[in-house]
Amino acid sequence: MDQQTHKRYLDYRQRHEYFGRQKAILTLAEFEPLDVEARELEAKGRTRDDEEETRLYDLYVILLRD
Hints:
There is one protein chain. By secondary structure, the protein is mainly α. The chain has one domain (about 5-65). The protein has three helices and no strands. It is globular, with a radius of gyration of 12 Å.
């Protein structure tokens, strides 16, 4: 795992303490593929279709991102 992914995971854990207390916290093994998928969808920018937009929103909710 690269340093940026590790930093995003640590940021996620910190946000979870404040925003995600009702949800189970993701392990690093669970977090990593979701993070990769979110970054791939983010990279598509305006070329995302409606289904991809919905999935990206769902990933943001899971990963506690804005």
